[in-house]
Amino acid sequence: MSVIAAAVGLAFSAVAIAHGMTKVQYKAAKENIEADYKSAKAACEPLLANAKDICIAQAQGTEQVAIADLKAKYKPGAAARYDARIARAEAEHSVAVEKCDEKAGNDKDVCNKQADAAQTTAKADAKAHKETAAANKMAKDKSAAARAQADSEIADARKDAATRKGDAEYAVAIEKCDALAGDAKNLCVSDAKTRRGKS
């Protein structure tokens, strides 16, 4: 794990110097990230079973995030920042799912639902950030009418993100109810529905 931490540090230091880089510098930084990944993956080899799976998922996730961050620095823009956020959400999800494999039964199901909910939340936030940036840019470039339209689009993006988060939280709550039985389960499901406004 300490080797992975070192690899993460190296990958992010490569990204930190990426701002204003040339194509040659970008290529070199990318090669450094790929080399760090190979080292981190090699450090996973002595591990066994799920510990090895988690280690590999962390190494892969670190590489994906570092490359996405590097691209965002090399060619800045809303789309690149969005891609970096999505890469981070997917990397964290992969590691979380591997960690859930250490559990069993309903605990594992709840763990997986929580991992899915965290990914849904991160992706919804990334989409809201992207749409907010686009709407703000449009408003800056145009008239007061465009500003009003941008405000409306921002509100819609935030509402959509809130809905996605709420649905993910509801799925986790319902999964937790599956560990119960009889009246306790019915009460749990009813409470979950009431909290999320489900009929």
How many domain units? 2
Q: Residue ranges: pLDDT <50 for 5 or more in a row?
A: 1-18
The topology string of helices and strands comes to HHHHHHH
Radius of gyration: 21 Å
- Overall helicity: over 70%
Form type: flat
Structural class: mainly alpha
Oligomer: single chain
Report the end-to-end length measured between terminal Cα atoms: 47 Å
Main beta sheet strand tally, sense and closure: none
The beta-strand count equals 0
Strand content: under 5%
Mean pLDDT: 82
Number of alpha- plus pi-helical segments? 7
Short description:
By secondary structure, this protein is mostly helical. It is built from seven helices and no strands.
Summarize this structure as a short list of keywords or feature phrases.
199 residues; mainly alpha; 7 helices; 0% strand; disordered N terminus
